[in-house]
Amino acid sequence: LPNYNVSQAEIIMPAADLSEQISTAGTEASGTGNMKFSLNGALTIGTLDGANIEIREEVGDENFFIFGMTAEEAEFERKNFSRTPWQVCQKNEGIRNVIESIEDGSFSNGERELFKPLVDSLMNKHDPYLLMLDLESYIDCQNRVGDAFLDTESWTRKSILNVARMGKFSTDRSIKQYSEEIWGIKVE
Question: For the domain 6-80+133-181, what is the CATH superfamily, name and number?
């Protein structure tokens, strides 16, 4: 969104059913957007990264949609290149078809060169975010999300539990913990 700001967030976050926290594990900067979505009842699809880990612990595994590698697995892949994007495409026909459709101009009125930099960044250049390696897991997880969303009673229950279990992230508790653990101030 252009010029995204707090005023827009005040409208978007309460209206969201799903929060997509999809950074590759081990790469997320510390943020609070995922908490704000959860506090407003949105369920989360995300990697085991940053505050997602804490949110999942609080709301419960059954109310959080996890996909992708752990931070340790991602670091291993960056160092060892045990799987390549080409191997992902060879293994998964659907992903291969998408890449081929992007390459052949299906999404660019036949202009094959238009998305070449995108395909090159995904397939040929070093991708520090390991997007292709997490893609199959992400697609599978999105399918689980879609199935879960169709069960409105269960989705609503999960949403309510998300809100009810997010108390750990209140500002009062956070300030008290920061005061004691970081700043060394005893708070009563």
Answer: Glycogen Phosphorylase B; (3.40.50.2000)
